[in-house]
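Technical appendix A lists one of the benchmark inputs used to test multi-chain prediction within the project. The record comprises two sequence entries:
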Amino acid sequence: MTANKWIIEDTKFEVNNVKETIFTLANGKIGVRGTHEELFEAETPGTYVAGIFDKSEAQVKELVNLPYFWGLRIYIGNEFLNPLECEILDYKRHLNMKEAAIYRYLKVKDKKGRITIIRGIKFLSFKKRNLALAKYEITPENYDEKIYIEHFIDGTTKNSKKNPAEKVKHYKLKNTKVSNDYIYTEAHTRESHYKVSIISFLDCRGNKISKDLDDSITQTVEIFPKKGEKFSVTVYTSIISNREIENLFTENLKELNKAKDMGFEKLFDEHKKELERLWKIANIDIEGDEKADKALRFNIFVLLSMGNPDDEKVSIAAKGLHGEGYKGHVFWDTEIYMLPFYIYVYPKAARAMLMYRYHTLQAAINNARKNGYKGAQYPWESADTGEEETPKWGEDYYGNKVRIWTGDIEYHITADVAVAIVEYLKATNDWDFFLNYGFEILLETARFWSSRVEFNSKKERYEINNVIGPDEFHEHVNNNFYTNFLAKWNILKAIEYTNFVKNNYPKEYEKTIKKVGLTEKEIKHWKEVANKLYIPWDKKSHLIEQFEGYFNLEDKKITEFDEKNMPVWPKGVDLSNLNNYQLIKQPDVIMAMFVLPQEFDDITKKVNYEYYEQRTMHKSSLSPSIYAILGLTIGNHEKAYQHFMRTALVDLENNQGNTEHGIHAASAGGTWQAAIFGFGGMRIENDTLSFHPWLPKHWKSMSYKIIFKENIYNVFITNQNVKITKIPYLK
Amino acid sequence: MTANKWIIEDTKFEVNNVKETIFTLANGKIGVRGTHEELFEAETPGTYVAGIFDKSEAQVKELVNLPYFWGLRIYIGNEFLNPLECEILDYKRHLNMKEAAIYRYLKVKDKKGRITIIRGIKFLSFKKRNLALAKYEITPENYDEKIYIEHFIDGTTKNSKKNPAEKVKHYKLKNTKVSNDYIYTEAHTRESHYKVSIISFLDCRGNKISKDLDDSITQTVEIFPKKGEKFSVTVYTSIISNREIENLFTENLKELNKAKDMGFEKLFDEHKKELERLWKIANIDIEGDEKADKALRFNIFVLLSMGNPDDEKVSIAAKGLHGEGYKGHVFWDTEIYMLPFYIYVYPKAARAMLMYRYHTLQAAINNARKNGYKGAQYPWESADTGEEETPKWGEDYYGNKVRIWTGDIEYHITADVAVAIVEYLKATNDWDFFLNYGFEILLETARFWSSRVEFNSKKERYEINNVIGPDEFHEHVNNNFYTNFLAKWNILKAIEYTNFVKNNYPKEYEKTIKKVGLTEKEIKHWKEVANKLYIPWDKKSHLIEQFEGYFNLEDKKITEFDEKNMPVWPKGVDLSNLNNYQLIKQPDVIMAMFVLPQEFDDITKKVNYEYYEQRTMHKSSLSPSIYAILGLTIGNHEKAYQHFMRTALVDLENNQGNTEHGIHAASAGGTWQAAIFGFGGMRIENDTLSFHPWLPKHWKSMSYKIIFKENIYNVFITNQNVKITKIPYLK
């Protein structure tokens, strides 16, 4: 590991799908996996554009793996220089997080003894999100031969490349044009009819040949460098889609020409400037713990890579723009795990993400109606239109079909969106958003819950039965604590804000109430539901039962941990019947305490933490960060640090074993929250900030910034001191 | 090297384009390069169907690299089992020449320690040339996991894959259909509008999924084998084209179903039976020299793989169906180097090859007319229609355009075709062919020469100026010996056969003469031309000048040889001005003595052999075999053996350095001729066979068979004895 805190380093040249994820570049609009140019066929390249989904033969809509536009092949004479058949004399790849750029140095010797050095820089512009730039310097170290540089855009990419049963080709290339000045093609998605326009230009001295090869397009230069003489190659690419504009060819050619006119260096400069602006607030420094410091920074880098203030019709997927896990769908992960980062660090991106929920509100209303409910039921998995995209069927190890129930009954997502609306408002004072959009969501979600509950006349209470809570080991449970508690909170917040808006913003109130069709009678019913909604919380013992009957299940505690410090299944557990045990996948009761900390006293937090922590298998990457934060709240510091490192390293150390399918975006958000709300101890109490930090002994200091309402708070923490300064936040 | 004389063995699993050529399977109709299934992307797969050419953006028509139909990928769970990322525990690949089948055994251990054994057999049926069969046995040696077997037909193959400047995609996939019972697609060539229909079926227990992935089609089975339990996979493929039939889908589905009904074993049996029938005559045994024995057999195997008695509209390309060198074009190589093998071993194939020249006779007549001549001028390079396909431009090392003149002025091909007609007739007595087709060719070629000559009134002679002879180091020469000598021979033979046919087959004579429009006056002119055609042959000194002025060129002799025993350029030679030296690329005067041995006495052969041998660089694979044969004729035995081994090993040892681009088909034919006409000493003298063998000392014996007229001659030679038996040849 290099000592430079901004650098993630790779020193082994190899086919490695995990590193493809880690070295992904993304700018909120485009994501390109960190595939080596030369290993295009052997690895799992991925090129994604936010919002471009298609179903075709897939079970559900997927974020489309679009044509790969960063293809580059070097030929010495007519021999393709394939590093896999060469001796690797030297290799280094750096992800420079400060610059959001990949630097690569590769020195290879082919079978004929010819040594070639290839240096490259790549970035996806944060300033002009449609632009992708790559620049190479190539040196024929010890030979004097003709070299071809072939840049290609490959149209054979498929989703689920490594799963022949699920593999789908989602697009066809259309309107391909090649000339000396550009190569151009469009990927038209087969069912959803999106059109993604890609234009590219290879800037290099030498004879140029452009080719339409049907499934790919290429631009080649023929060069006769002298031995030892280095030459440079720049690839300009612009990607736009019919989500933004209709006249694709004309507009994209303009974009390309503007980029060429500016040149690589200026484009790189303006990109770095934008990054500098973002890092100025986003960066967190931990002195005394290099590993934690860098791991945390990587998670922040991932978060920065996914946000996009300019597009309010997309949101962030569970695997970011970094891979195809979960099909590019948006889950509660976005609002509960990731959004706080954006709220406090990149509020314009946060607003755009919430606007995505507003633009899909009608779809959520339709979804509720389809299921026999009122209001807005947000889909468990959401793509471009906001319809429910959860697959109905999965497969167990033996190829047997297994029904997936989350899309049907994991309702809490709807309350999670409501929580996000309120948290955003509290931190930003963005009443414009709230009054025009957020308030409406709050009302429609409250309305959903009020229609979803069932009245148990025997027990004189409302219940929410047959659900899945955050802990997905237990399906079809009744009165899940997290679900019921957040549903109640959602209804109460809707009532509270209805009153507040009515009194303070009567004009906006009228507009929204009219649109939503809310009556006094309905509000009365909401109050009744909230009052009588059953919450399985024994206030005397402080211990909360995750759902009705949970405490009667067989109780196996975790006692062993593997080499990655992850829990080992207790002996005798039947993995095909997890419904029968108290073991949980991820926090549920504890989750409620994390989401709504002000609703629980310290002793309750402590009692429940201690109970559930021993029973949590962390089979979701959403789990450890929550235990880190709660652990710090209740004073379990040592374990909190372990949990923090687990979540911070989830991708860098691939400790969930599935990083190849994309980044753990929720875990990245969870890591940031564990740093800020956990070690950094930031809380909102009575609408103001307070800080109760705790640092591990070996940490000398921690410093971070957050934006709260009109100010940027600069927080510097040592084990002796907390120093807070604030400056106005200029939006 | 395995001791089994029928086996060519490969023991190293690697990306290797030379081995792809050597392990090519071909059956005269289809050729598939020996690409490893798993290395499809990294190697240079080639799938060719005889007669399917297309130009599109290429400089000239090319034999199209069609969709690759032998794709197979194994996935353990959802991980592609890529041997390049595995430890290769064991590997062996055999080309079984007796069976024209590839056997492969591969045992690999992946990064997770899972060991998989893959055994495979593949063949292209010699009995039903449209069928391609592959069978695998797969064993998950030490694991118990779900396995996917994905069979694919890939439609992204391109010509000149490794040359980005020349790369062309010649077809588009059309009419793709997938079902549980087959996957089907058609490759439609873009400019020539051929349609090649490919249908395939993956036979394996398990759930089957068929997919149209736009640029490829797949059939996948999901299997849950037990640890150590082997399972089998058979792929049935049938390939037909609109060259044969119009109703492609219906007919090819029938073909597939017939094949499935018969099953792999029976199809393999009938294929092997056909091979046995061919080998019965074709095989040559050399006792006492394993290396020579096997190398010779490999060349015979290659020749058998290229012949096809059932298709008289195609002929054999310079690189066979084994690669893309020379674009799949037919040269004089076919008639002069390869055809004798077919004449004496596989006469039905020989006839089909000559019929190709008959079917392209009109194109040759058009070609002559276009160039201002009469009669038939055969193209230097010929493809499907018989038009001239030689590229006009090449590129030198520095990317400068270089004019290629062979298509304009390497005229001797026309006489070479005439030679082949006469040789075929003499050996087979196939008067049916001669009277209906061959005679017409003989007349039109004679007519061409009579119009091509120029009268030099000063010297009172006919000349043929501005030509390239077989030795291509010297361009734009006047009165090349080989050209003039064969032109004269061509005219004289035409006159001779005109008389003979007139006297013996008057009806056929009338028909042909009428068709050709031949008059007594024209024949008189032919005689005049033949009499006065200048032949640069000083009968006193015996030494023949390759062309006028050759002896005045700077004379550098070859004195050094490289590690492959190939000549090294003499010091001081300027490679950019080879016209200035007596050094030659390949035999020219000696070539005439090889083609028409009866026209030269022994002393002339010896004098010229000794002169030219020292000046021949063997920069063509067509060279060594000729020196082997002539060497044996004149008694230069030791060098003859060296030349024989050079030509026999040209591909197995890649001694021309370009085997990756395809097999050296002419060299294969030359090897056979060196064996039979050289060591085997077979000659036709006065229309009967005679034998003057000579064997190297370490050869214990040599045995071969040839078909001559109505008999099969079985020849057994030792250093003491020649034993000849004959049995009737049943056509």
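The longest helix of chain B spans residues 248-282. Residues 482 and 592 of chain B are 5 Å apart (CA to CA). Comparable benchmark entries are summarised in Table A2.
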